[in-house]
Design brief:
The chain is an alpha+beta fold. 32% of the residues lie in helices and 26% in strands.
Length: 724
Amino acid sequence: MIEFSEYMKKHADDIADGKLNVINVSRDSSRHKHKYTKTIITLDTETSSYIYNGKKYAYVYIWQLCIGDFEGNYETIYSRDLDDLKKLLDMLNTSGQKQMVFVHNLGYDFQFIRNVIPFIEVFAVKDYKPVKAYYKDFEFRDTYIMTGSSLENLAKDNKLQTQKLVGDINHTLVRTPDTPLTSKEMSYCENDVIVLYEFILKKYVKSPKFKSMNDIPITKTSVVRHAVHEYIRKHKLQFKVRAIIDKLKPDEDLFNHLHEAFTGGLTTSNAVWSYGIIADAVHSMDITSSYPAIMFRSNRFPMGKFTVADTDVNPCILEATDTMAYIATVELTDMKSKFGISLLSGNKIDAINSTGVITANGRIVKADKVVTTITNIDYENLKMMYTFKVSKVTYFACAKQGYLPDYIVIPMLGFYRDKTVLKGIDEQYEQYMIQKGNLNSIYGSIVMNPLRDFIYFSCEDGWLDDEQLECMGKNEDGTIKDSFKDYFLSTSEKLEKYYASKNTIYVYQWGVWVTALARQELVKMLAKVGNNAVYSDTDSIKYIGQNKGHFWNRNLEIHKENEIAGKHFKVISDMYTPKSKDGKIHELGLWTYEGCSDENGFKTLGAKRYVYIQNGVYHATVAGCPKRAIELYLEKNGLDSFTDGLLLSGQYLSKPVDGIHYNHSFKTTMTYLENEPETIPVTDYLGQTTNVKTGTGVFAEGCSFQLTVSSSYLKFLAGFKIGE
């Protein structure tokens, strides 16, 4: 890795008119609007956090950049001065073409480099989460949002020649631009940008389908959307797709009801078994690719235009769940859960008009009256899990049922087949990971909310809130500025614009039904297993006792449903029953047995809070805390210690045992700073003091984790009795 000033000397002969002509500007032959160079640039920073006079500061003590061509030739540059980054970019000549700069977790680095680079445009999903940012001809892209993978896994999963070095820099030590770095630390810095360069080169540039940098996706779901668009173009379905979208697009009122009805996976524990160690072995059954399975085999998606009832309708209409897809706002009375596992989330009801509501673990156990918006699938689910009466239906809209369009399902089946066939083949590992990622992203693409928040970044004012947007978005005469037009659109106008786009290939209601149908698969089995069910989580059920037969019987039904769906879509059975390397058939959507815990080896404290021992090894799932932190604590303190009040420190309070800290949370809190530019004295871990320029940044600090169970839930568990 070459230092910036040395790099400038090395390329002194290349400097012409103040520009460095080291970027390959061969013309991009694609037909896209934007033309990109044939050069790959990757960037990373290393930072320190510091408290001075009681105030938090953060700054860059080294940045590194890799610049390379499409043939594997690259050079790495670094500087201890952030100002040099702007100098370098200003001197690089792109000949008017766009130049991508890839950054892993751009939101973090952006907060530092915005101190020296006046970005002219930023596209973000929310505050401090830019997806793309522009400076002159440079387009900064976030590879973390693009892949959803850590840099370490990115290198491993793609079998890159260069691997990320882990643990070679202790980030808790304070460093400054004057702090000497060891060769090991410098290698750590360099490898990060080389890994990114090799990833872009191998994954995209060297792909047989690569034509230009325009082919590089922005997000994970954009890869899936691209595959669907390719299928549409190949089979000349553009007019068919447009007709479907125009027919099914929801208006504002319907969309609002759909949004109220949308609910994610069913993640909860059974109150019967919560808080105590379970003596029996706890078994686990998982669904093979739950969401894709539902999207393939179910013929109960809303596939016609919704018709809205003009007046209140007779509650008896809700029983017609098999004949139509519907969405309804209902008033339910005398509601009571049949089991220790409850279904309806407390935050999915109209709290003002609901009365006598008792919740446990965030889900309704009992209520005198509940007002909520549901689909026909939800109604069936509620009947399996509760006793209740329907007293009123205040909104009702229905549509014809059917399978999802083939342009969605068939590419998805291709992802599933390829993932299964490639699994376990070493030389095809990268392709396996690609197809696995595509399959996992298919749900995210179909459930996307078309109403996104308008996020705007200003170099002068940072991330703008609504009050600032209202002010800055208008000219002096009250007219709306062009760049703010989307912000001032009404909900109806936003929906119309979204569904008018030729890139729109899904309607929102399909995503609502995917989750409802996936929950139904769990609910069917929870109703069969009853209070032998210990825990459920989106696509799995953990239970005690001899209940496998229920799942095997359900698999026979699923197999028949798959065969019927296969005939409908006119696909061969190998698409949904592919074989892996070992010749084993992996049928889409079947329940599979995943083993069991040891006896006296399972404990849950509620949703996303369970631990178990399997073959003497601790395993943990606890929301808000790294798995390994809990597992290490339990190894030291036993299963009984998994209880209300469990505390893990954010600091290393004791000496490690055999090199391991058993009471550390491994958690870091990030505070995004909006400090004004300031120079402060910083004393590094070596005792050397340096004046450091600071400004906006991200302050990182270790934080503790305390496991707490709400007093209301503890009280509920203490008095819980089945049937009362």
